[in-house]
Amino acid sequence: xxxxxxxxxxxxxxxxxxxxxxxxxxxxxxxxxxxxxxxxxxxxxxxxxxxxxxxxxxxxxxxxxxxxxxxxxxxxxxxxxxxxxxxxxxxxxxxxxxxxxxxxxxxxxxxxxxxxxxxxxxxxxxxxxx
Length: 130
What we know:
It is a single chain. The protein has 2 domains: 3-73, no CATH class; 84-125, no CATH class. The chain has helices spanning 3-7, 17-32, 39-55, 62-73, 117-125. The longest helix is centred in the middle third of the chain and has 17 residues, at 39-55. With 130 residues, the chain is mainly α. The chain starts with a helix and ends in a 5-residue tail after the last helix. Helix 3 (39-55) runs antiparallel to helix 4 (62-73).
């Protein structure tokens, strides 16, 4: 997984084959641009990349547009670790509104958000360390 994929929190298992080329190109451009990480700089970078793809009539991975819009709406922040220490903070409870389904992450582990607490409690009840 590239640093760019980590920054955008991409799970490469769920990407379509045709998206990989555009993400690799975006990662190379991100490196050339000095690896912008700040919210405003990342929005500007993604906007420029998307405009470039559009200008050249090239396919781009939809996640690039999604992350740009999430940044603009302040629904997502790059590089923010999602853990139980930030749970319960702010209007989205620390940014956990869309992190899991029913308290479980896509990889089958219990999510550190408040939705995962009933599952952790059940495992503790069974004598398992969580």
